[in-house]
Amino acid sequence: MTEQRARRERRATIWEVAKAAGVSHQTVSRYLRDDPRMRPETVERVRRAVTELDYRPNLTARSMRTRLSGRVAVLLPAVATYGPPQILGGVMEVAHEHGYTIEAFSVEGTAAERFDRVLELADSGQVEGVLALAPLPPASEHAVPARAAIVASADYDDRFRGVGELADGSPVAEIVERLADLGHRRFLHVTGALDFASARGRRDVFVATIERLGLGPALVHEGDWSPASGRAAVHALAEHDHPTAVVAASDPVAAGVVQGARERGWSIPRDLSVTGWDNSLLGAYLEPTLTTVQVDHRRLGRVAMARMVATLRDEPEPPPPEGVLNTIIWRGSTGPPRNGRDPGAGTP
């Protein structure tokens, strides 16, 4: 058996990485800790050696030697009613960039009960930190055990419903303004379930924008995030003098709106322009393609884990990333109303 083959069949050691890179094992350790004082050329040599040897740190040995496990626990809500997985993907990206492994867990019960479990885990010595994507009691981040740090993200509630920045409905104003510029004068909003802060935020911005632009009345149909609620909203409209633009609270609701419109013989977007929210994968492949709002959930996860890394390394919290959380994607489901203007409507 050749030396190279034998090496592949067992875990490479830090000393073998050091030899391949022409550096000391202490230098390799500095590389694994992302020491910013290392010279770029040294970093590149060690990186190549780590890749070639498929080196993976022995976390158990490192924990015994340094009392650092290289592991971060991520607390998820016990019930994920409507939470995309991209946020956890963003957490994992930043964790791996900085040499941490992630272990996800959830705890049923109240915020206080979850915090008891977080404290127990944080003080166990098994993890260096606990990142909570579910709500914890106020001031939890200040109750830091001796062993581990606790960082709480305020983006989701107990049921993984968006709060805070995720509940910002401001893109709805831009959607209504753009459609009004195209000639639409009568609008309908189909909400999501109103126990979601995000659904209430989108509804409130819709009503305020309609009133500000003098496009009233602000018609609102209460939905529940389902395609059925979008379809029902369209079937409830009068045959004539109905809205020519529907702003749906989500892509599934928008899909139901489109289905209901076709059942009534209306074409999209000539008779009815439709917009959704969340940029679901299938929206780009519908006919016509769906205008929607893309939400960068992965960015939220990256921001949360970057805060954790800064806390673990006693560094200043990183500045917010550039760019916006919500981006409107204009597609084929929106356009001017029939004859270029909302028929039978006056000028606002």
Detailed description of the structure:
This protein is of the alpha/beta class and 348 residues long. The chain folds into three domains: 3-56, 434 Repressor (Amino-terminal Domain), CATH 1.10.260.40; 68-161 and 298-321, Response regulator (Rossmann fold, 3-Layer(aba) Sandwich); 164-291 and 330-340, Rossmann fold, CATH 3.40.50.2300. The chain is 38% helix and 12% strand. It has helices at residues 3-8, 14-21, 25-32, 40-53, 59-66, 86-97, 111-122, 171-181, 197-212, 227-235, 251-263, 297-312, and strands at 71-76, 101-106, 129-132, 149-152, 187-190, 219-221, 245-248, 273-275, 292-295, 326-329. The chain has a four-stranded parallel beta sheet, with helices on both faces. Strand 1 (71-76), helix 6 and strand 2 (101-106) form a beta-alpha-beta unit. Helix 6 (86-97) packs parallel to helix 12 and helix 10 (227-235) packs parallel to helix 11. The longest helix is centred in the middle third of the chain and has 16 residues, at 197-212. It is elongated. The model is unreliable at 4-8, 59-67 and 343-348 (pLDDT under 50).
